[in-house]
Amino acid sequence: MIVPPHLPLAALPTPLQHRPDLGAALGRKAFWVKRDDLTGHSWGGNKVRTIEYLLGDAKAQSCDMVVLCGGPTSNFAALMTAACTAHGLETVQVSYGTEPSPKPAALAVGEAAGATIRYTGSVDRSTMEDAADALADVLRAQGRRPYPVPRGGATVIGALGYAHAAGEVRRQLRLAGIDALTLVIPVGSGGSIAGLLAGFLFDFEGDDKESPLDVELIGVSVSRPPEALRDEIDAKARGCGERRLRLANVRCRWELVDGRGAGFNRYDADDAAFVDELMRRSGLLIDTTYNGKALRWLRDLLPQTDRSILYWHTGGALAVADRLGSPRHPSPYHQETK
Prior knowledge:
Elements lengths: L15 E3 L1 H6 L5 E5 L11 H14 L4 E5 L5 H12 L3 E6 L9 H9 L2 E4 L7 H15 L4 E4 L6 H21 L3 E8 L3 H11 L11 E9 L8 H11 L9 E9 L7 E3 H14 L8 H11 L6 E6 L3 H9 L9 E3 L1
Parallel strand pairs: 2-11, 3-4, 3-6, 4-5, 7-8, 7-11, 8-9, 10-12
Antiparallel strand pairs: 1-2
């Protein structure tokens, strides 16, 4: 059983909101939003839950620095840097490509928080992990104690943040009188949905005697083909739940669907209009990379159902600032396609 230390950072629980306004805009009836854009640490976002466990593990191992993978628009990398700096750990961020101009907000914030940025020189995002591993080896030879972190913090340790989030939302759903739902969440590196899956399958909270819950868990992949992630997600979920009892009161089935659209960090005019209209009608900040794509998939491709729908809002405020703050000079990492 994996029970690592964690460093409390988030203001939990995040709200579970009944949002008929957003449901009407999406052509849905009983519509709820889990507000993990409001996790309360720095500018928030879902990765705060992940960072609590990664940073706790790094501190427990007496590491003196973190080598993390993250592209120029990585909200996770910027948040991880801010948390590491506040707790006395140096951060090196390994990013794909070369230094962008203008810099996306996440990259600028990460540098301001103290990150040293290394670029792989390749547009292939998968080069980051190899470069980070090689750098960690060099640092160890120099007597440093690095803690390597892959894209999105998608490790079994990082996924534990969302295993416990599943217990948190189960308590909220019971209070709301909901016993069957379809939960939709955007998926990048797969760590968050792996944690949720673990938390719906295995007992992390000691609530296996509570009222039954039926969950259809749908991840909308915005970065990689679903077939490239399914096995990784399943393995991480099972790693999280190792030697824990199965939950007898929760029935959970899951699937991963393709929501990439124009491609990762790419959006077209219809995507932009869709997101802008949702923001005007709901008051939520919705980025085009993660939440915009997942919500558009939900509107266009999720079959109609009488079940409650729960959308898990993962954040993305910095990406919204990038798109709306410099419309005449868009970041090359947030480009509208024609």
